[in-house]
Amino acid sequence: MDNSKKGFIPVMLTPFKDNGDIDYNTLTRLTEVYLESGAAGLFANCLSSEMFELSDVERIDAIKHIIKTVNGAVPVIATGTFGGAIDKQADFVKRVNDTGTEAVIVITSLLAEESDSDEYFNSRVFDLIDQTPGVPLGFYECPVPYKRLLSAEQLKGFVDTKRVIYHKDTCLDIEQVRAKLKATEGAKFGLYDAYMVHAVESLKAGSSGLSCIQGNYFPELIVWLCDNYNNEAMAGEVEKVQQFLNANMDVMHNVYPIVSKYFLQKRGLNISTFTRRKVGEFTSSITKEIETLFKDYNYLQQELELDIHI
């Protein structure tokens, strides 16, 4: 993955039909929307994809479908660890790698229990690296089943193997992000931040880009931010975008990803709000909040003259 230019890597949704089957026609169009919006890569089979609610066959089939649709336009990364013995996890990492991914993503909370020490976790990571020779890897500090954060020292040790090229950071702490960036400086490696409250700070600190759920509402806005975060001529607009993201943080997380699918419906994408993951009830009050977000975003995107592809 080219980390020389700041980029947005969407955490992809999985569209479902109302009967619960994966809607591959809509997955094709959604993939195209991400690309048309300027995404630098795609993160398939992630938490936003409802990866824990997919079977192994569905995980592989969806990744293959996305890679075929992308057709080499941008790199695709995808999760490859779902718990259990390391040899079992290594086998699935290899299966994901065989689909043509740029890197296979390791879920930090599925390599050790929450009560396990960092030393034990580290040993499991190095075991996985040893059992997947030649496979480029990345980390995702996924909040499910629990959040296991990597320290700067840990991340450096893994990156130093030259096998880890990607990290999706969810620590929510800009000082920890800075420490991780300093520890991995000069490596062929990219840290992508998920936390939009400090998005501009993170980009200025040296992160390779953003990988956030907000891209499942308005991907072109996140691309715009990656392109303009350091543009002095657009400083006022950048601050307005940062404030807009901060102000709407809660509404975009409430019963997600149902809400983002509804938002994309309003934008014109033929996508069902069906989700397999149980995230709560999509109430009338939440619906009104999303409709207000949609209206407010329309004003913002017109002011910024953003190209809209759905």
Give structural notes.
The protein has 310 residues and is α/β, with parallel strands linked by helices. The chain is 45% helix and 10% strand. Helix 7 (199-205) links the parallel strand 7 and strand 8 (209-210). The relative contact order is 0.13.
Q: State the low-pLDDT regions, or none.
A: none
Mean model confidence by pLDDT = 97
Tell me, what's the shape?
Answer: globular
- DSSP summary: helix tally: 12
**% residues in beta strands:** 5-15%
Adjacency order of strands in the biggest sheet: 1-8-7-6-5-4-3-2
Throw out a few tags for this protein.
single chain, 310 residues, alpha/beta, eight-stranded parallel beta sheet, 12 helices, 8 strands, 10% strand
Short précis:
The protein has helices at 24-36, 56-70, 86-97, 118-131, 152-159, 174-183, 199-205, 219-228, 235-247, 249-253, 258-267, 284-304; strands spanning 7-8, 42-44, 76-79, 103-107, 137-140, 164-169, 190-193, 209-210.
